[in-house]
Amino acid sequence: MAMTDTNPISRLRVGLHPALTHSLPEIKYVLRTLLRLAGFGVEFLWTGEKSETSYLDIYYGPANSSAATPVEIRWCGLKFSEAPQLEPSRLAEQDGIAYLDFGSGGGCDHRAAGGLCFTNDIILSSYWLLTGAREPAYRRDRFDNLHLDDSFFLKHGLASRPLVSEYAALLRKHFTARGRTALALPWSGRSAAFAFTHDVDYPQIIRSIESARLLVSRGVKALPSIPGILNGSNHFWKFAEWVEFESTLGTRPTFYFMARKGSLAQYATGTPDCFYDIRKPEFTALFRQLREQGCEIGLHASYNAHRSVQQLRREKEALEQAAGVKVEGNRHHYWHLDPAAPHETLRRQEQAGLLYDSSLGFEFYPGFRRGVCHPFRPYHPQERRELSLVELPPTWMDDHFDRRLAVNGIADPTDFARKLVHTAGKLGGTIVVDYHLRGMNADFYPLYGQWLSEFVCNELGSTVNYQSAAELVHQYRDYEQSLDLCSLDLTSAAEHGIAAALAAEPDTAAPGEIRADLLRPEEHEAWDAFVSSHAQGSVYHTLAWKAVTEEAFGHKAAYLRAVDSAGTIVGVLPLFLVSGIFGGRLVSVPLRDRGGPLFLYPEACHALAQRALALQHDMGAKSLEIKYPSQECGAALGALGYEEERYWVTTVVPLNGDSEKMWNETLRSPTRRAVKKARNAGLECRWSHSPADLDSFYHLFVATRKGLGIPPYPKRLFSAIERHLFTRGLARLLLVESAGRAVAALIVMTFNGEMISGYMGYDNAASEIRPNDLLFWEAMRWASDNGYRTYYFGADSPLQDGLLSYKKKWGGESFPIPYYRFPPGQLSEEKRDSSAARYDLYRRMISWMPTPVLRLAGSLLANQIS
User: Fold this and answer.
1) Are 285 and 154 within one domain?
2) pTM for this one?
3) Rounded to an integer, what distance in angstroms lies between the CA atom of residue 444 and that of residue 758?
């Protein structure tokens, strides 16, 4: 559990059936999203069909007649990868809740003991909605706008029914009635949160064009408006009007500016970007005024910016330079995302450094495009991960209730908008409206700003919580972080379900012939399932770590898997080709002290080791290196001619699930005094995964490495860790702060019941108040209380007696790490140890380097070493 200011947040235990391994990332994404919106932490566990389930809160899997959980959700039998081909056969209603029927039918049955049994698969339904699985199949016009005329989504009114948010509200209601504590949504003091946002499309009126346009559309009725257009009094520069209107409601607007200047010629040929230049003096003055008024300045990405990370980054940086602010949010011009894969556009925004997007709406239809009326994290189906970007879904825009009425068929805009607000309010959701800057010109747009002002005054008043877009996103991120910090994933722990079965010693010989070869794309799910279920599986065996290594260092991955005669994976070996200046090396794995084969049978280990030798030859690698294999595997490697060396030392601290007992019985009084000294000095700990805190960590990390005379890893390593590990719950960032300033920080890896000390930085000037002692104690305390069995300090030189003694004082045991190399006779690890006295001069030279030079050197060296 995590603590709020007053009450502990309940963590719900979710049991997953082993039959679901093929869709495990998707299932955990949906359940995590639902329980976040419901206000609960989550603990994922494996559970068998005949296993005891009374200790669970939620069971998801095939129908289980013996399930005794408060909530059972029955899997319909379909793989989540099939979602793009699925269309519900009907919409079933029960007790005011709608259910999508993908063949399993059903709804929700109330059990005698007060439990719920969802005979309808709301997990698959939620995934179908959250990912917009059918959107690529919808008809598109030449501007890539989706037309939903014949779609199940539109026919059954799903745009105005956020089913994912409804399912989350049902779970919140059910578990709070059973005495569980849910974290309140940040804006829950009123019915809904409401944000005004404005796309700045054409702030500078082109007088001749607009005069002609009015004359064509209105005829002689336009004549009274023409003089004002020509003399400049009838204009589109309506910033002050929007600021004044929203200030009366106690909020400030968000303005999205376009950083790419378009032209009439480009507009005529299909690239309808705006014509203004944000570098002009009038915009410089405007930006200063908006900053002083507390308005948010966001990016209005150009029409084709969705195609390129580089273009998005260029536009973001150009706006930041012109406006003098850090740009956090974006809305695409025309809401124009990649029409075939909107998630790919959102991934590109993530890589461009944006915090949130607010573009996931339909051009013609108001409502809730992805079945949710809350901020949420989008999912990338190809990369099979939750994005770090937050989506703040827009509910309606000005044109929905004006020029789009002919398409969407809404007869009464006021009534429709009222119902959307009521729905979001009932669920504690958010309403985000998009009104163009020029909409406050009632002469041109009587159904834009004027209609909105009347609607807000007549229908809303003070019944909603008015916020800016950025405020909503930051509130949601803080809320989400509180829940994630009390969550736990044990679907990789060996003591549960299939993990226990796979980790057990096999009673029989290997089933048939075992072959080893390179991993295929269609086997990625099976690889991660195998690693998650193996007793020795580490985060460095996962495909997430593969993505980190490839992005950060550019090493070519060569992942080997062994399969039996049935094609089932029975062993894995992750390898990377490190192309250094002294020749290529094939390593499992680079720059970490773990790797090596995982296997169920000795024959699988032998097949992997042999195939690795062949791969070394095929790839032209000078040598092959395997780190930290099991004792049984080491024997097989030795038999094939690999040379063993045990030089580096690791320290492992056993955790017993009781941090209080560890504090009182394991830690000696000097260690406890050091932690107390840090607390008495006012130091505070907190967990985080925000980009700003990662920047603070990296500043400390570089300073620490500089002080030690060691080149730092490049920043891109930690950006990749944030992208691929933080978002999957495989890594966490812990900070120790003094008066709000970070003085020590630690990135830990969390996988398979083990916490690994990954990367650390600290302010040496603060060492007197012992921030490092508080840092390590908080990491171990949290790990122990959240079910982790061991704390692993990583590899150290045996020459570092002081460091090894420091780590042992936490109750750790040190032992050497076996490395195996082929061919024999290579440079020993002892000769490579930079802690040795022979490297003193080099370390001093590195510590004297200016920080920018040191960072560059670290970036270059990191690609060369293993």
Assistant:
1) no
2) 0.65
3) 59
